[in-house]
Specification:
With 482 residues, chain A is of the alpha+beta class. Chain A contains 14 helices and 23 strands. Classes of the chains: A alpha+beta (482), B alpha+beta (603).
């Protein structure tokens, strides 16, 4: 068969045109607004402050504020505001060389700015500027994973002005902020890493499940974070859903340390360790995972997930009702067992169901658990005044570096102990020992590791979700742009 | 207590008793009527509850059957029976419960495992086999049963239906809280409804609006009676601050198992209104009773006054008759028994007057006959010598003058003597007829006695058969008497005593006193009197002596009676006779005497 020249030219032209169209749809574009629904509300944009939902807040803060370093999916630290770093042999003194970058108000990011920001965190470190571009951090005990640690959002570099407004050097600038309702960001044209593609990113906070479904059906939004119980119908509808690895820790945390047992000033007495152990044995983690979490998680026996550390299986986490009853009886012979008031995040229906299931399982062992909803469960300072024996927390995995992740988790739970700081652990075995020690008294009862899930509109591209559920929106673009 | 007072008291008691009885009857009737109303109200409310219960049960059955027969449920059951992941259906029950407005929905696997629970979503995976363990078919009607929830056991009205698949059946249990049934009831004022829920484990509790106002300790015996499958009712006093008294009916409500009562319907009927009405009725009854008693007393007072007046008049008249006034008459004011009594009284007094008149006349005739007999006897004795003497005188005229003169002298002497004797007899009768009225004065009876003793001293002691006087005078106040007549009485008694002791003896003079009378006694030791003689001794012209007029003691009695005193005689045959004279004390002297005695006592 022999084609005419004109037909060949036409066919070639069509092919080129199709290729051009295909290329145009996959090539990043500037412009457009990315609208994101978050079902949790937060009332502050300060990553150093306490909030009811710090994980959701930190997602926004990551766009507003830079950290000195950043982590990749493999847990390696990479330069961000710090172009390079070095440490002494004991990892006690660290030097970070800053890249040339500007705050969103146009001022240059200098070493004194970084020192002021890190000092504000007040970790007990000695932070000093060496010169305009070099910061020296001296810590009492060596921290081998200092670069990984400084990648946490709580070490964001923030310039605090006299009117208490916060200025960062992130890829987006704050455009509008209605606490608990809405955050509007606009692209930072002067960002050192280059202007982001979208012109704007808008976060709608506190959207209910019904609202989320409605908004998604309307297609007005680009993305929404999801609870695990929402996944099945979306997946069945072939919607674009991204799941992280089971990273978030669903954990029961007993608020009163045993040291308070003899304190008459404590509002509630600590729950007897035998009862706590009995409760841990009574909880049917598989049922919680299979039914409530819709198999989007894994039963947890440790603080850090098995996929991250490889040693979680060493911690006991199975259901042993007989042992639970035995422990409970043992405790009943020695102390008066009061009902355990268990607080959960009242805005999280999954947490409610898990708490109720814990109560059901505890009941089988003869332990009375009274779950009730609280708005400030994740707020560390609010927990101190809470009239609960235990809280059910959902803690994000803040780092894929085990030592840093454990340190962050313990800090989030208010259990950070300088003498056993995992940050000083150089080896994984040390981290295991520290985690084992943290779990030994059953003040912390891991329940499950849960995946982070996000629904994405088809017009959103390059939405990258790390293994720990963190969002990397550096390359994000939307088809609504120029 | 007078007859009028007695009648008044009797009538008052009668009226009060009658009114009180009527008031009690009214109160009892009212109480009974209220109780009937209360029972009717309760029965109406219980009927309403049963209707609502039935209606609610039908709605639940409809809801559960709608779910069980829905395509989605059938599809779910099919998927599950084909081995679908049960975790995907954990929220199914909640959706169905919302759609059918049910409080409880459980989707249960053939082996009893809970797949999804609307009221306790976290309970998935646990077993619920109570309906599988039951022998016989599943109930088609709604039934009561306690449902386990996170908050505890809740009493629910449930329905169970199988969901058919090709394999084993799945089950759907749905229902509503029983509170909602109670809330749909609209009890009338004063009634309230609640339900006692009795779970198999744990403490029972009261459901409904009365939850906080029903102390369980007071009502538990009643509930326990009802739990024995029998209805019961009891009046319960809740104490101050609550609804006070209430009649509570407890009705057992059957459940899934025929052996156990899961709940008891409590219908409380406040007695506050009834008590208020009963109190009002009681107050009105008391007022009416009070008025009735007052009016009754008033009217009965008038009636008894009118009734008792003729009787009182009769009593007064009878007293007058008793005092000797036989001419008294009472007014016959009516024709009833009292009137007839008055007529009979008047007739009686008239008869008494007539009989007295006849008696007087009879006695007068008898007296005249006795007088005539005595006169004839007395006069006949002197007349016979007179006749003999005159006949001797006539015969003597034939004798010689000397003889005649001698006879004449003797005869005239005899005639004069007998004529003198006749004059004496006539004088005595004249004295008796001319008995003077006593001139009463204060007299010392002892002094008179002493004077009489002195007078007769010689006569008593200087005769052949000596009579020894014995004077025993006591302290006697002055008596009210005529001293001349009193002395004549005593002298007469002394003369009689002397006649009674022809062979001598002892004559005792004795004086004394009692409260009202001065007393004089004269006792002899003569032959004495027979009882018949004692009875007749004071009868005029009666005498036991050969020569006597029979007027001495009659005069003595007449004198003593005229002194408002009394004379009696006592005697024993052959032992002597004693005359006993009582004379009233002189008032003034009596008082003085009394003062003297009183002064002596105080000194």
């Amino acid at each position: 068969m022999k084609l005419s020249r004109s037909r060949l030219i036409a066919a070639a032209s069509l092919l080129v045109a199709l290729c051009a169209i295909a290329s145009a749809s996959s090539r990043p574009r500037y412009g457009g607004t990315v609208r994101i629904l978050l079902h949790e509300r937060f009332n502050s944009l300060d990553p150093l402050g306490d909030d009811d939902h710090p994980a959701a807040r930190d997602r926004v803060c990551a766009l507003l504020f830079d950290t000195l370093t950043q982590m990749d999916a493999q847990g390696r630290a990479h330069p961000r505001l710090a172009a390079s770093w070095r440490a002494d042999s004991g990892n006690r003194v660290w030097y970070f060389n800053l890249r040339l970058a500007n705050f969103q108000d146009g001022s240059v990011v200098t070493a004194p700015d970084v020192v002021a920001s890190l000092t504000h965190r007040n970790e007990g470190w000695r932070v000093t500027p060496v010169d305009q571009q070099t910061v020296r951090i001296e810590v009492p005990v060596g921290i081998p994973h200092m670069p990984e640690l400084l990648a946490l959002s709580r070490f964001s570099i923030i310039k605090r002005s006299s009117d208490n407004s916060l200025v960062g050097s992130g890829p987006y600038k704050l455009n509008a902020w209605q606490p608990g309702e809405r955050v509007a960001l606009s692209a930072n044209d002067d960002y050192w890493g280059g202007r982001p593609y979208p012109d704007n990113i808008e976060f709608q906070l506190g959207a209910s499940l019904r609202d989320q479904l409605l908004e998604r059906q309307l297609g007005q939004y680009s993305a929404a974070d999801l609870a695990v119980d929402q996944l099945r119908p979306l997946e069945q509808g072939n919607q674009n859903v991204q799941l992280s690895r089971p990273s978030d820790l669903l954990v029961l945390l007993f608020l009163q340390p045993d040291a308070l047992a003899s304190s008459a000033r404590a509002s509630r007495k600590p729950v007897d360790p035998r009862v706590r152990e009995a409760l841990s044995n009574a909880i049917n983690r598989n049922a919680i995972n299979n039914v409530i979490l819709q198999k989007r998680g894994i039963p947890a026996s440790g603080i850090l997930p098995q996929w991250l550390t490889g040693y979680e299986f060493l911690f006991p986490g199975g259901t042993n009702l007989d042992r639970a009853k035995e422990l409970r009886s043992e405790a009943a012979g020695l102390v008066i067992i009061n009902p355990i008031a268990l607080a959960y995040d009242f805005s999280d229906p999954v947490a409610k169901l898990v708490a109720e299931r814990v109560a059901v399982d505890a009941r089988e062992a003869g332990i009375v658990v009274q779950p009730y909803g609280e708005p400030h469960v994740a707020n560390k300072s609010a927990r101190a005044g809470m009239n609960a024996d235990a809280v059910l927390l959902r803690l994000p995995l803040e780092s894929v570096q085990p030592a840093v992740a454990l340190a962050a988790a313990l800090d989030d739970m208010g259990l950070a102990d300088p003498t056993t700081a995992p940050l000083n652990a150089g080896r994984l075995e040390d981290v295991f020992e520290l985690e084992n020690k943290s779990l030994a008294d059953f003040r912390v009862i891991p329940v499950a590791h849960v995946s982070e899930a996000v629904w994405l509109n088809n017009n959103v591209h390059n939405w990258l979700q790390g293994p720990a559920g963190d969002w990397n929106l550096d390359q994000l673009w939307t088809e609504g742009g120029r | 207590m007078s007859l009028k007072t007695k009648l008044l008291l009797l009538i008052t008691l009668g009226i009060a008793g009658s009114v009180g009885t009527v008031a009690l009857l009214i109160e009892e009737r009212a109480h009974e009527a209220f109780r009937n109303i209360e029972l009717e109200r309760t029965a109406t409310l219980v009927d309403q509850f049963h209707r609502e219960f039935q209606h609610e049960g039908n709605e639940i059955i409809h809801g559960v059957e709608s779910i069980a027969n829905s395509d989605s449920m059938l599809r779910t059951a099919m998927e599950l029976s084909n081995g679908a992941d049960v975790g995907a259906y954990v929220n199914e029950a909640q959706n169905y419960a919302q759609a059918q407005r049910l409080d409880f929905v459980d989707l249960i696997a053939p082996d009893g495992t809970i797949i999804s629970s609307a009221h306790w979503p976290a309970r998935f995976g646990y077993k619920q086999r109570w309906f599988l363990d039951r022998s016989g078919p599943l109930p088609q009607e709604a039934f009561l049963r306690h449902v386990e929830t996170a908050q505890g056991n809740v009493l629910g009205l449930l329905c169970i239906r199988p969901v058919k698949t090709h394999g084993a059946d799945y089950y759907l249990i749905g229902g509503r809280k029983l509170d909602s049934v109670i809330q749909t009831l609209s009890p009338p004022a004063g009634l309230r409804v609640s339900i006692y829920s009795s779970p198999e484990q744990g403490q029972g509790e009261i459901l409904g609006a009365a939850k906080d106002s029903v102390p369980l300790d007071k009502i538990m015996p009643l509930i326990q009676d009802a739990m024995q499958q029998r209805d019961a009712s009891k009046t319960i006093d809740w104490g101050p601050g609550l609804l006070q008294e209430e009649i509570v009916h407890a009705i057992a409500l059957p459940g899934f198992s025929p052996d156990r009562v899961p709940a008891v319907l409590l219908v409380g009927n406040s007695l506050q209104e009834e008590l208020t009405l009963e109190k009002r009725i009681r107050n009105i009854s008391l007022v009416i009773a009070g008025l009735g008693v007052f009016l009754g007393v008033l009217i009965s007072g008038i009636i008894t006054t009118r009734m008792s007046r003729p009787i009182r008049d009769l009593a007064d008249a009878a007293a007058e008759v008793g005092h000797g006034n036989w001419g008294v008459r009472v007014e016959q004011s009516s024709k009833d028994e009292v009137g007839r009594l008055a007529a009979a009284f008047n007739h009686m007094t008239e008869e008494l007057m007539a009989q007295r008149e006849r008696l007087v006349q009879t006695e007068r005739v008898a007296a005249w006959r006795e007088l005539a007999r005595r006169l004839a006897h007395e006069l006949k004795n002197p007349l016979f010598p007179l006749q003999i003497t005159v006949e001797n005188l006539l015969r003597a005229r034939e004798n010689t003058p000397e003889q005649f003169d001698e006879v004449f002298r003797e005869s005239t002497s005899t005639l004069l003597a007998e004529i003198a004797n006749l004059k004496t007899i006539v004088g005595r009768f004249s004295d008796f007829s001319k008995m003077p009225a006593p001139q009463l004065q204060s007299v010392d009876i002892n002094e008179i006695v002493r004077a009489v003793v002195q007078l007769f001293q010689a006569q008593l002691t200087q005769r052949a058969s000596k009579i020894e006087p014995d004077v025993q005078l006591g302290q006697v106040p002055p008596v009210s008497a005529d001293p001349v007549l009193l002395r004549r009485v005593i002298e007469n008694l002394v003369l009689n005593a002397i006649d009674a002791m022809p062979g001598g003896g002892k004559l005792t003079f004795r004086t004394a006193k009692d409260d009202k009378f001065g007393i004089f006694e004269l006792a002899d030791t003569g032959k004495g009197l027979t009882p018949e003689e004692c009875e007749r001794i004071f009868t005029p012209y009666y005498t036991t002596k050969q020569h006597g007029t029979g007027l001495g003691l009659a005069i003595a009695q007449s004198v003593v009676i005229d002194h408002h005193g009394r004379i009696t005689v006592s005697s024993r045959k052959n032992q002597g006779t004693t005359f006993h004279v009582e004379l009233p004390l002189a008032d003034g002297m009596g008082l003085e005497e009394k003062k003297t005695n009183a002064a002596g006592a105080t000194s």
